[in-house]
Amino acid sequence: MERAGSYRALEKLTTIPKGSLCGYLKGRLVTEKRLKILLDFLNIKTLEYRKLPLDWRQIKGGINCVKIKKQKGVFERNLKKMHKASSDRMKGWHREMKKNKPKEYYSLQYSRFKKVWDISFKHLKEIKLGINWRKRLQIYYIL
Prior knowledge:
By secondary structure, this protein is an all-alpha fold. About 75% of the residues lie in helices and about 0% in strands.
């Protein structure tokens, strides 16, 4: 701020709106593009910063939602309701697949069971040692 003299001068020099500059000084997050513009203006070559994931707003909102629901005492009830809805949906999917596409359904289920069997057999030694291999399995199949 001192280098430019005023918000308006900084706005003209960096092409960043004055409202955004005020927000950044109050703690609002800066986009990577605008951060580079400000660093160039200040002649700073390196700066350590943490890049947030693209869905950081959803994550923050979800965490706040859980806090509020726990304060109100409805979190457990909602969790049970979601669990039941998910269970009902999956049961319906299985029912529909068995009825309408039995060949596809049974081959899909067989391939899934085979993957679990193959992996559990491969990790038998780790299972006996008590190493938690399920997390690695879930991450492997999610990616």
